[in-house]
Structure to design on (955 residues):
């Protein structure tokens, strides 16, 4: 399929041209407009990725690109793309309520298709924004000369495909700034609800800046509303996005962790059928900073592609990445991570575990890149996969690229199934086969879930895991 | 560690030991690749029609294939039209004994430390010497003949056993497999052919020494080994090449076929000329090696020690088609100066209960780059398939690189695949430990390297293990981490 055969490609190119013609970006700085223009040129050249591209070798998105999508939330407002941001309705509210983490005292930020619903009133306990934290919509921030600098620079020099597309056409999202030395008294719980009454491409852009010695704890939930006609679905969250409408989310988050700052970032992805989620996250770590990421993907959506790129731009940083993906149905879950060791004496540790049910496909690609300057690097990475069903597929590709000699780096990757001995042990003690398998999956996932530092979030994730282990489907 | 740089410089400046040119009159085809050249080669060798047709198919595939871009090094520009595709020693007569062989040629091998006569009597190795492209002498042929084993040059096999060659050549590495395999198909000059009949255990190691000689001559060997049901063969391949300023392309193809219960062990020590310390010259070693375990319980084992070549680029692979078949890959790759090695293996698990084991050890020094690239693919029918992969990298000096790109693709839930990789430098504590016991740093490093590579070296037949150890210590002499 050439790019021109893809309806969405055409829609995007036309959309951008309409925008430029209508001068809809008028209030944005000229630098930002230049960035958008060059990103657009790169996208126009690259088109959507195909399996011929090494980074998309195992993730064939062609079947989803055959459908038509309208552009949601263009930078110039409704002028070019037409109606979007179908605001709060009962279904959206219900989805948001369902994503709440029980017993968690957090400040809740609700975003519908990337737009902050300030007065949604979800969560009676939301209270005031924690001291030291500043929240803005990206629509506001990108027009503020002092802040638009965060959007003017491409996340990396070679961006193409989805990242280029996001840069060219993003409109809104959440801008978070934490003051230097601020220690907010409670975490932020960002609930992303994606919905539409027709097929939509939604492209949120988020920027978080955590200043020196500050701390930020964020829990992100990605959901779609459950509609009455589809809500017979047994998976709870996993129901159609908006009736039959499909949602393609192409989201980009940039997180800057300044010197001595700490960020604790949990992502829980439970959108329903009809959702194609492409989530790119770039983290830039400065000196002695700490960044922890916990990523959980559950059955429901058709496609989840997470690109998590950690750029260690200064020395003595620490990074922990933990991931758990539970895939079912025809779902394709793809986790790409990159830990880019640019400077000396940084530590990174990564553990991703996958459980593959039914006809699902899991893809893991973990890259550790150690530059010549990055002596004394310690980098570890592990990926384990439990393939439950005969029809499931896993493609794992851990990579090490090392250009410095005084380093300790290792990676490991395994693919396996239930241990016969463990199963026998449990069954010999009177535990039924299904319960035993459930226990084993829980034990497998425990290595990741136990790393979550907030007990309420850990309990929430465990509950989701139990909800999604239909071992009988295996 | 004060003398680090000095020692590293030492390695970097080490002259290639086996660099010399043998003066023998050569019969060289005009440079360039065209249908005409192919017909010239084919005619020169009195080949049958079907082989010429196959060569031409290879040429077609070559001309429509583009050079790959996924490799982890900048691919130098190769002018395929500047290479001469055929070179053979002019004296065409056959030899009955070694005495009749050109003394210059024998002296060359003596310099390499592989005196034929000595091997004949002492080591019991039958050597099929490929000097440039044409097989000059084959020893021990008679003895093997008694057992029904065919071990001869490829050209001879085409003449004497066309039915075998025709049936199997290109069956594992098709003419359109990759651009270099296509090139080889079109222009292959000669090579070795081995057939082990049913139930026969080859009593000696079969061995070939390759050598690139005439300037501007690419060498395109083709090796075909067939082990019929229940047979066993161990095959050794070793190579050294003379010093040369211009880059030379070496695009060989090796095909192994193991029938039911058969076992093939293929060992390589590769020491082509690596180029000088500025990365000038050296051999491009772009080889396609693949084996197939056709029947149940078959086994194919690749062992390689790669110390030479400017660029080594190959992935000896095994297709595990028969149930219970086994594939193994053991590799040590050393790069220094500006050498590049992008090597690894592919294991295709198709049959049930198939097993594979991959041990790869990379050592990078100077500005050398070492990549492991491997694929373990488990098909939907490969129930209970098992793979274990370990690849370790050792870095010496701060300008080298070590990279790992393992691909794991599993479509079967009863398969177990394990991969692990580590990268580190030689521990100062290890050197300190040995220093304390009166072993100087240089010897300590040699000890540690040899220990590090032991798992692979142990797989080599004895004669080769000695040569390989010598190569390792020459290459990395005195490299204190």
């Amino acid at each position: 399929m050439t790019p021109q055969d893809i309806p969405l490609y055409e829609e995007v190119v036309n959309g951008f041209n309409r925008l430029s013609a209508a001068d809809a970006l008028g209030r944005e700085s000229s630098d930002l407009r230049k960035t958008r223009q060059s990103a657009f040129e790169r996208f126009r050249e690259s088109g959507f990725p195909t399996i011929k591209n090494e980074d998309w070798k195992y993730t064939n998105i062609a079947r989803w690109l055959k459908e038509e999508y309208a552009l949601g939330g263009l930078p110039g407002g409704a002028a070019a793309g037409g109606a979007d941001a179908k605001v709060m309705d009962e279904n959206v509210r219900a989805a948001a309520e369902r994503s709440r983490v029980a017993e968690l005292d957090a400040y809740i930020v609700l975003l519908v298709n990337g737009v902050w619903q300030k007065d949604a009133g979800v969560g009676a306990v939301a209270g005031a924004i924690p001291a030291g934290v500043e929240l803005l919509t990206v629509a506001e921030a990108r027009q503020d000369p002092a802040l638009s600098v965060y959007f003017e620079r491409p996340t990396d020099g070679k961006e193409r495909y989805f990242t280029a597309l996001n840069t060219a056409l993003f409109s809104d999202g959440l801008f978070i700034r934490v003051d230097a030395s601020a220690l907010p008294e409670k975490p932020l719980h960002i609930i992303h609800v994606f919905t539409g009454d027709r097929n939509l491409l939604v492209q949120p852009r988020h920027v978080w800046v955590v200043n020196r010695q500050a701390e930020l704890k964020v829990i992100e939930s990605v959901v779609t509303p459950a509609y009455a006609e589809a809500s017979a679905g047994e998976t709870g969250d996993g129901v159609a996005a908006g009736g039959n409408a499909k949602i393609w989310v192409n989201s980009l988050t940039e997180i800057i962790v300044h010197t001595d700052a700490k960020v604790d970032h949990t992502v829980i992805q439970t959108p329903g059928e009809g959702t194609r989620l492409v989530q790119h996250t770039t983290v830039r770590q400065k000196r002695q900073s700490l960044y922890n990421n916990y990523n959980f993907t559950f059955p429901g959506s058709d496609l989840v592609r997470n690109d998590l790129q950690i750029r260690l731009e200064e020395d003595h940083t620490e990074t922990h990445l933990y991931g758990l993906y539970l895939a079912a149905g025809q779902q394709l879950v793809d986790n790409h991570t990159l830990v880019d060791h640019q400077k000396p004496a940084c530590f990174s540790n990564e553990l991703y575990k996958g459980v593959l049910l039914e006809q699902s496909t899991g893809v893991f690609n973990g890259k550790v890149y150690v530059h010549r300057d990055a002596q004394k690097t310690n980098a570890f990475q592990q990926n384990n996969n439990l393939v439950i069903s005969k029809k499931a597929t896993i493609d794992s590709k851990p990579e090490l690229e090392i250009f410095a000699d005084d380093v300790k780096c290792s990676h490991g990757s395994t693919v396996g199934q239930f241990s016969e001995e463990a199963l026998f042990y449990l069954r010999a003690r009177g535990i039924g086969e299904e319960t035993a398998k459930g226990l084993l999956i829980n034990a497998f996932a425990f290595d990741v879930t136990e790393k979550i530092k907030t007990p309420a979030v850990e309990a929430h994730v465990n509950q989701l895991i139990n909800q999604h282990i239909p071992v009988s489907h295996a | 560690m004060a003398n680090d740089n000095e020692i590293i410089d030492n390695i970097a400046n080490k002259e290639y030991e086996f660099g010399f040119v043998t003066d023998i009159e050569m019969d060289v085809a005009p440079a360039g690749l065209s249908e005409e050249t192919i017909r010239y080669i084919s005619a020169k060798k009195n080949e049958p029609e079907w082989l010429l047709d196959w060569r031409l198919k290879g040429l077609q595939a070559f001309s429509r294939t583009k050079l790959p871009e996924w490799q982890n090094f900048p691919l130098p520009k190769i002018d395929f039209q500047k290479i001469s595709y055929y070179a053979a020693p002019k004296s065409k007569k056959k030899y009955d004994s070694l005495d009749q062989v050109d003394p210059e040629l024998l002296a060359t091998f003596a310099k390499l430390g592989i005196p034929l006569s000595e091997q004949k009597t002492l080591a019991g190795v039958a050597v099929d010497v490929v000097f440039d492209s044409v097989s000059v002498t084959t020893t021990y042929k008679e003895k093997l003949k008694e057992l029904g084993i065919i071990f001869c040059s490829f050209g001879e096999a085409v003449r004497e056993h066309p039915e075998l060659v025709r049936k199997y050549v290109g069956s594992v590495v098709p003419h359109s497999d990759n651009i270099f395999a296509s090139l080889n198909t079109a222009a292959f000059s000669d090579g070795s052919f081995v057939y082990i009949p049913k139930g026969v255990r080859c009593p000696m190691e079969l061995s070939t020494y390759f050598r690139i000689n005439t300037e501007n001559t690419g060498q395109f060997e083709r090796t075909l080994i067939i082990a019929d049901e229940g047979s066993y063969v161990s095959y050794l391949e070793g190579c050294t090449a003379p010093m040369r300023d211009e880059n030379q392309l070496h695009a060989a193809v090796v095909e192994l076929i193991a029938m039911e219960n058969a076992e093939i062990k293929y060992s390589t020590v590769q020491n082509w000329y690596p180029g000088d310390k500025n990365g000038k010259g050296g051999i491009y070693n772009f080889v396609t090696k693949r084996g197939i375990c056709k029947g149940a319980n078959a086994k194919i084992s690749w062992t390689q020690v790669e110390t030479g070549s400017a660029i080594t680029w190959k992935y000896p692979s095994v297709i595990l088609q028969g149930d219970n078949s086994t594939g193994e890959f053991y590799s040590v790759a050393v790069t220094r100066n500006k050498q590049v090695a992008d090597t690894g293996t592919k294991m295709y698990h198709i049959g049930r209960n198939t097993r594979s084991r991959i041990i790869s050890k990379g050592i990078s020094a100077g500005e050398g780059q070492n990549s492991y690239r491997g694929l373990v693919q488990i098909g939907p029918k490969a129930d209970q398939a098992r793979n274990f992969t370990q690849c370790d990298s050792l870095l010496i000096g701060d300008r080298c690189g070590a990279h790992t790109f393992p691909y794991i693709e599993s479509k079967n839930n009863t398969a177990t695949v394990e991969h692990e990789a580590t990268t580190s430098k030689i521990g100062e504590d290890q050197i300190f430990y040995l220093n304390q016991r009166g072993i100087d740093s240089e010897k300590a490093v040699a000890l540690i390297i040899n220990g590090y590579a032991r798992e692979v070296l142990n797989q080599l037949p004895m004669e080769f293990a000695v040569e390989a150890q010598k190569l390792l210590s020459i290459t990395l002499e005195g490299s204190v981490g």
Remarks:
- Residues 441-457 of chain B form the longest helix (17 residues).
- Residues 91-95, 117-124, 132-137, 213-217 of chain B have pLDDT under 50 and may be disordered.
